[in-house]
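Predict the 3D structure for this chain.
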Amino acid sequence: KMNWDSTDPVTARFVADFKAKHGKLPSFYSANYYNAVWVSGKAMQSLEKKGKPLTGENVRAELFALHTFDVVGGKMELQVAKGQGHNLWDGFFRCQELVDFVLARCAPTP
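Done. Predicted structure below.
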């Protein structure tokens, strides 16, 4: 589960901004979508600092080069299974680290 009381700067700012705009705590899904945009933005920002053009291929390469990001909920490490890219292959569900991550953040079903 997400710790909305976290004091890490990215989470604290996201929660404060979300509560100010919507009057309630964010959902896990809103944080997840925010993180996707945040990480992409960080890759683009890094490319701009390097003077490289913002192309899809450059952003993708920069995501892999940066590898670790401070996101809502803490630190995120980009992991891609060798030879699989970012697809939904059978081994995706056999990665114990991923399974543990998902289970730790999912709300139990009633």
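The chain has a mean pLDDT of 82.
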